[in-house]
Amino acid sequence: MIELKNVSKTFYSKKSAVQALSGVSLNVGKGEVFGVIGYSGAGKSTLIRCVNLLEKPTEGQVIIDGTDLTGLPASKLREKRQKIGMIFQHFNLLKTATVYENIAIPLKLTGLSKTEVDERVKKYLAVVGLDDKSDAYPGQLSGGQKQRVSIARALSHEPEILLSDEATSALDPETTESILDLLLRINREFGITILLITHEMHVIQKVCDRVAVMEGGEVVEQGSVIDVYAQSAHPTTKKFIDSQFPIEAPESMLKTIAGKGPIVKLSFVGHSTGQPVLSEIVKRFDVHTNILSGNIVQMKDESYGRMIVHISGETDAPKAIEALKDAGVQVEEVNLDDV
Amino acid sequence: MTFNPAEFIDRWGSNIWQATIETFQMVGIALSISIVIGLPLGVILVLTRPGKALDNKYLYQFLNVFINVIRSIPFIILLFFILPFTQLIVGTSMGVRGVIVPLVVYTAPYIARLMENSLLEVDKGIIEAYEAMGMKTRHIIWHVMIREARPSIILGLTIATIGLIGATAMAGLVGAGGLGDLAYRFGHLRYEEDVMIVTVILLIILVQGIQSLGNRTAAWLKKD
């Protein structure tokens, strides 16, 4: 549906050139929710703006549904853009227009009749749950409501693709949740392909099927969300994932256990998150386990959990670790200073 | 000397009424034409900037310098300097008709600058959102830029109108009349203090009224 082939973008100023993207290739399938995560300056914003050519790539191709946008004349590009919705961090609504007009004006400009416009506005305001706000001005709405209006505005063109440029980054956690739920619903009900960029791992975990991690203008790792959680290789990816598993064991406790048996990081993927594996090894072997930290995150279709556990009982500890591995748990021995 | 309103109106009423009409005519006509010229100029100034939709360095620089040059010339000099041009355009250089041309030449570039300023204040993100929706540039100009800039445009036009009223005071020099001219010729040169005070009070009321109207309209359009 969205195919980026070797996309590079260099910004030139009088004195210098900044390479924002270098040779990025991505492939987003129809109906998929694809996330791009990176720290600020990683190039993710430039990347998403290249998809609808708000930013023209210096090199490479942007192929949407089989058409290379980079070669299109202006009028054809406009037609294509009408089928690619976009939502933004700061909503970008007309401040001087009501909610209704904000959705209706662009529709009118695409040549729809008055009754069609009216139908669409009402339909999509209902989808985002704001049918009672049609006469309000954006200044009277909360951030979450504004983002809902902008989602309705994007949907009203009945696009096949929705681009989300940090759409939840300006919202509080609770509002973020409700907007993410709305995006998931849109994806499922309307089959709209979503490409989103974010700097929050939580957003990726909650709504994305696949993820690409960006750094320094390049994609350093990509794959299905669960695989990236379970087998991340790149340090940046690890940092993003670790941010969801904070280790808050007190210093004094860590000191007392230092040197008394291995400390292991256990990762549970999918079904193994439901197994009582720790109590089993305690029963079977002469070991005690002490959980230093632990968390489970619920992904779109699966769950992923991680624990840092201290296993005491010198002789049986290696056997216990083997047993954990047999049960499908990823085990990684860690150094206290690293965790 | 005591001020007798009845006697004053009897003696000066028709002159003041006539002058008020002339001021309104000059301001009204000159302002309308100046908006018709100045608003598109302001739009062009914004769109031809580097990196904007119609990026054109030469046109932008030319307009930039051209507007600055005209705006540097004091109105009283401009009034005489362009006499031949006025003659050519409206066939006379006298009266209300003769003063409209210099007033427009004086005001239109000023309005262009004010419009440029207002349009540049419009949130780039909103313009970008409309580009992303595949809207045509001319639709974006009208339905996004000018629409969102309306409160600021109204305030700019209020400033321009008041400046225009000031400039009409010098229109008397080519026989166009108006309140400013009345205050100057009768009030100042012929020591008719009453006339001067009354016309100045009328001008104050006019300026106050226009400013309040502008402020209210802008606030009403702003909506946030």
Outline the structure in words.
The complex is a heterodimer of chains A (339) and B (224). Chain A is built from twelve helices and 14 strands. Helix content of chain A is 35%, strand content 29%. Chain A is an alpha/beta fold and 339 residues long. The model of chain A has no long low-confidence stretch (mean pLDDT 90). Chain B is an all-alpha fold and 224 residues long. Chain A binds chain B through residues 52, 54, 77-82, 84-86, 88, 90, 92-97, 105-106, 109-110, 137-139, 150, 153, 157, 163, and chain B through 123, 125-126, 128-136, 139, 143-144, 147-148, 150-151, 221-224.
Please supply descriptive tags for the structure shown above:
heterodimer, A: 339 residues, alpha/beta, Rossmann fold, Alpha-Beta Plaits, 2 domains, 4-stranded antiparallel β-sheet, 12 helices, elongated, B: 224 residues, mainly alpha, 9 helices, 81% helix, 0% strand
Outline of this structure?
Chain A has helices at 44-51, 74-81, 99-109, 114-127, 143-155, 173-190, 201-207, 225-231, 235-242, 251-257, 277-284, 317-326, and strands at residues 2-12, 17-28, 33-38, 59-64, 67-68, 84-88, 161-165, 193-198, 210-215, 218-224, 263-269, 288-298, 303-312, 330-333.
| Major β-sheet strand ordering of chain A | 6-7-8-3-9-10
Helix content of chain B: over 70%
Helix content of chain A: 25-40%
Range of strand content of chain A? 25-35%
CATH-assigned homologous superfamily of the largest domain in chain A:
P-loop containing nucleotide triphosphate hydrolases
Order of helices and strands of chain A: EEEHEEHEHHHEHEHEEHHHEHEEHE
What's the CATH class of the largest domain in chain A, please? Alpha Beta
Order of helices and strands of chain B: HHHHHHHHH
